[in-house]
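tool_call: predict_structure(chain=1)
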Amino acid sequence: MKKILVLGSTGSIGTSALDLARRHPDLFTVAGLQANSSKEQLDSLAAGFKCPCTLTSIDGLDGIARLLDTAKPDIVVNGIAGAAGLLPSKLVVERGIDLALANKETVVMAWPLIKALADKNGAQIIPVDSEHSAIFNLIHFCGTKNIAEIVITASGGPFRNYSRQQLESVTLADALKHPTWKMGQKITVDSATLANKGLEVIEARRLFDTNVQQISVVVHPESLIHSLVRTSDGILYAQISEPDMRHPIMGALCWPQYVDSGLEKFSLAGHSMSFYEPRRDDFPLLGLAERAADKGASYTIAFNAADEIAAHAFIDGKIGFLDIARAVQKTLEADWTNEPRDFDDVFEADKKARSIAEAAL
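tool_result:
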């Protein structure tokens, strides 16, 4: 029986994790719940799982520290969205607790610091994004020394077939019509701009200690192959499943065992799969992220912060769709060569990038 604690328990990742806990009471017990929601909603969840330890966001980081110390989980699912999820990840690995990580900012903003803490305290970090979960498992099967290339798949978002002229006038409602996944507004907009895929390139570069030249992106609209690796002999190996976030979450919760999730098993019969090169000129955020990943230092922090500011400005109706990439590009023209020495440096770079992006807007 594994004790799990869920941060962001009412979001899409948290909801999926708790669904698995309901399905497998023989495998998991819910030791703690945190959410940026009402106490009534959290109390209702806690009652359903007979979970004694809960926390609303108003209690901040001190509250999360107390929650971890009281609940004493075996593994924590971090489903908190945005930069707010970084320091909770730090608190988890400082305590030597395994981390099922869905928070991109933990890796994009501060991976060297987080990884050092995890190694020092004996905590495992297991990626939960469908793409990085696939890569994580494929590398495990094939062996790190045998990997020549990582291939990240992208749905292409709702505008995959739009012309540049059409992209000039798309609306938020258009951008939120994702063809495959049901997600929050910001990540859905990021999928439409390919910023999300750019962030995943940064994550893959850091999680799997490779260089950007060994990572490629291919558009795969059906979202059935979640990523691939190419071994040194030139052969591609893929992970294939229905597009359901419960698969990678289950994998993270049970790692290193492979346990029957009880979810729908994918059948090849009746399906077709297609693949395309991404249109980098029309969706420039992918290339901007790749260059940020290659430069390292604080460039990835700047990319993430500027994209967050610009994407929310689009969501709020303040700018057009193509202005998102323009604001990020302008922000990255500043000097980001400083390598963060600690978390204060990380947040200082984040603050600076947000200020530059606001001015660019």
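agent: The chain has a mean pLDDT of 95. Proceeding to next step.
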